[in-house]
């Protein structure tokens, strides 16, 4: 029986500033058996410490205990890399440490990708996705791409630092229903806008639903540049993408009603979260 552990709840991860022993006392994953909770904290610390030579072992151990790939990604991997980001911001970590932690994430994702993609049962359309020009961050984009694939999409991942012209070429070649731009830097988020402007200038806008995401991206930014949907995380992105090729398939990219429908999905999610928290 696959073991899925609560990961939607927002945890306080202050304990990750201290040590493994402190993390063990945290209230994260109290619904997991003791040895799985311990393993999750080990994995968090493996990512924080950037000990990529051991990452695969932790992942294999968790998979053998039937923990799902999604739980690992949204659970200990997400909290570990979030603490790396905090350390980097506070000048406690520098680029070499962040690169080691990123290597852990990549090794883990490489092992988990086939498991996530194996969930695919139907083909619901093509998505072209990429990190915009000038930006080399791709961990989050890879997670979004994997989750979309599992949900039935054929995903054409253009990689990192993708120029607007390369997006256009891929759109012409693959005829996607959705195009997604990821950006992690405040200095590169503008390339989402530039790419969208070129798509419009090329007369392709109405045929495409444009998704934006990444740490500095917000609903306000999505509204400002005229994208159709903002994905705060991979799960939201997948839910909106499915709606775009399902219920709202007949709507055109850039249409006000489509934008409103995407906002309604967020509103309903917030409502469901609030109800669950009561
Ligand atoms: Co950099 N980096 N980094 N970095 N890095 C950030 C983004 C930063 C916030 C760190 C910090 O200061 N706290 C900061 C940006 C600050 C800013 O712009 N305001 C920063 C910086 C400054 C830099 C450099 C400029 C550092 C330097 O050189 N001095 C440099 C830039 C290089 C470049 O791109 N040109 C740089 C380099 C790197 C590494 C190469 C070392 C490495 C990237 C490795 C890689 O990706 N292959 C790296 C890393 C790992 C990070 C942090 C620590 C982690 C990013 C990450 O993978 N998060 C990051 C700190 C942070 O974000 N808090 C940081 C985990 C991932 C699962 O989350 O990517 O947000 P995320 O994806 C989520 C959602 O955002 C969403 O779904 C995902 C899953 O739920 N999502 C989408 C993402 N894309 C989506 C697309 C969608 C929909 C949803 O639709 C299309």
Structural description of this entry:
Strands 2-1-3-4-5 form a five-stranded parallel β-sheet, sandwiched between helices. α6 links the parallel β1 and β2. The protein has helices at about 20-25, 35-50, 50-65, 70-90, 95-115, 140-150, 165-175, 190-200, 220-225, 235-245, 255-275; strands at about 125-130, 155, 180, 210-215, 230. It starts with 19 loop residues before the first helix and ends with a helix. The chain is globular. With about 280 residues, it is α/β, with parallel strands linked by helices. The chain is built from eleven helices and five strands; from the N terminus they run αααααβαβαβαβαβαα. The longest helix is centred in the middle third of the chain and has 23 residues, at about 95-115. The structure holds CO-5-methoxybenzimidazolylcobamide. CO-5-methoxybenzimidazolylcobamide binds near residues 88, 181, 187 and 237.
- Which shape, going by the Cα principal axes? globular
CATH class of the largest domain: Alpha Beta
Mean pLDDT: 95
Q: How much strand?
A: 5-15%
Structural class estimated from helices and strands: alpha/beta
Could you give the count of β-strands?
5
- Low-confidence runs: none
Approximately how much helix is present in the residues?
55-70%
Strand order of the largest sheet: 2-1-3-4-5
Number of helices: 11
User: CATH superfamily of the largest domain, please?
Assistant: Cobalamin-binding domain
How would you spell out the order of helices and strands?
A: HHHHHEHEHEHEHEHH
